[in-house]
Structure formats: C-alpha cells, structure tokens
Amino acid sequence: xxxxLYALNNLVSNKHFLVYAIAYFSFKQIVCFVxxxxxxxxxxxxSMSTPPAKRRRGGLVQRVNMHMDEECVAGESKFSNLxxxxxxxxxxxxxxxxxxxxxxxxxxxxxxxxxxxFPVLSQMAKCGAxxxxxxxxxxxxxxxxxxxxxxxxxxxxxxPVDDGLLYDQKILLPHVLFSDIFHKYPATFERxxxxxxxxxxxxxxxxxxxxxxxxxxxxxxxxFRTHGIPLGFHGDEVPITGRNKCWSKSMLTFSWASLxxxxxxxxxxxxxxxxxxxxxxxxxxNTLDSVFKILVWSFEAxxxxxxxDKNHLGVSNLCCIELCxxxxxxxxxxxxxxxxxxxxxxxxxxxxxx
Length: 354
What we know:
single chain, alpha+beta, 3 domains, 50% helix, extended, disordered C terminus
C-alpha cells in the first residue's frame, strides 16, 4: 500500500516513474496496484457527484408537527364557509374576516400544542339551545358575558313615562362609565377618549375665541389646558320600527363623546339613555326634565373629578372617591345647543297640544 501511495505521489512529477515501476514490481503486483487505483478513482468520482446531506430543520416539536401536517387530510371548515358567506353578502369586511380567521387558527394551534379546551366558546355556541331558538340568543349570550364585564350596572330609576306614571328606567351614567373605562380599560381610554395629551392644548387653543368659552367655568381651573378633556353631548331621534314607513316609531337617544377622540364613531360614542318618542310626557311630571336632572348631576361629578357624595335627589352618605386624574368639562357648542333645544321642542310640542 505504501508503494501504491508513493506511485500516485510521483506519477505527475516524474514521467519515467512508470518505467521504473514496471522494472521493480512483478506483473501480479502491477495488476493489484492498477485495480486498487481504479477502485479509488471510482470512489472519488461517486463522492464528487453525490450532493451533501441536508440538515434537519427545526427542533423535535417542529418536525413532529410537520409530520402530522403531512398525515392530516384537508377537510372542509364550517367556520371558513360561514366567513365566506358573510363576506359575500357584505356582512363582514375583509379585515374582519382576516382577524376572525387568524383567531380561530391560533386556537387550533393551541389545541394541538397544549391539548386544551375553550369553555367560553362552547357556552357561546350553545346560546339559544344551539341556535334552535334564535330569540333566546341575546339573553343567553348576556349570561355568558356577565362574569367578564367590568362595566358597572346602569342606574335604575323611576321616571314618568307613557301615561304619566313612574316606571323603572335604566341610565348609564357618564361619570360612572368614564371612571370604569379609565381604571379598567386603559387601552380603550387611550384610543377613544384621550389618544394624546398634546391634543388637549391644541383643542383649547383652537376654541379660545369661541363664544361658548366666554365666561366658561373651565377657565377657573389653572391646568385645564393639559387636564381638561372636552366632552360633547348629543341627542337625536332614531327610527327603530317601521323604518321608511308612515307608521314608523322613533326612539330618542342620548350619548356623549370626547371631542379629541381619534377612533371610529361606533367606538367613541357612548350611550346614556333612550326612550320612545311616544312615551315622553309633559304633565303632571316631565320625562325629559327628570332625565336632564340626573345628567346634570352626573356631568357635574365629571367636571369636579370627584365621586359624588350625594345622589341626584340630594341624598347623602355616598362614598366620595376620586374619579380619575383628568378633569372633564361639558362644552356645548352653538350647533349642539341648537340641535338639543330644537329636538326637545319637536318631541314635546305635539304631546303638549294633545
């Protein structure tokens, strides 16, 4: 073998090597050397033509998942069919379809990785006896969501409606909802009420010469330009039943919103109270007067930034806690004031004549 390697090393450099080799070795040895040389040459050619082995990608879990994906059979998804149907009929936007599909995909991956369950999703699927009674879906869904709701319950108060008698009504007080959003939903507060503190100074600078600011009590607060959040109050009638019909019935709704919010209207407009127009009375007690008395009390608490120690009837012994670190002021622009007064006159005049 040493002779064979020595021959290979000198084959190129010494052209007379082959003659010396024939003279030195016997015929059988030459045949063995030639055969070994051919075998080595064949091994070199094969090793050069064979591509290098590929490295395995990913860890053990990733390789197991890839193997499971190869073995799984592609099935038809009821959820994807529902998304396609709702998108085709215009009920869902492409962005909403993507968000819902991504959420379901993440849940599927979580089930495969952790072998877990989603009890809330199962309860939601069983609403209305699994869809057999659609009228019960809302009631059942509210029961499912009740433990996860951080918003305080609306104020239940007796108001004169319909025939002048007192009936239980519910009002979502602005100062209560504002406090809940600030303390329990900070992301919503930042998006739908105060996205940027710099916008407060820009807003107050832009309305400094507005007539509604003349003699406004907000000027008595030294830091109102940096801590005063302007709120808008809105009331309007909305057709509820028989829309575009002669027998249509409208509902008067009240809401509030931050004037420096940057989100969508559906996100930034917060509901307060609603009542059917036909149920508003003026005598012997006035429905709207009773509602506005409660709203003035609630907005006054927002203006002070302190939880009220008395209710709207003047009853004391209520807990007094700080609402939040931000002051709030009700700023009625002229067009809001005009729409507000005109709306009340439209609602009350026909009833007063009758």
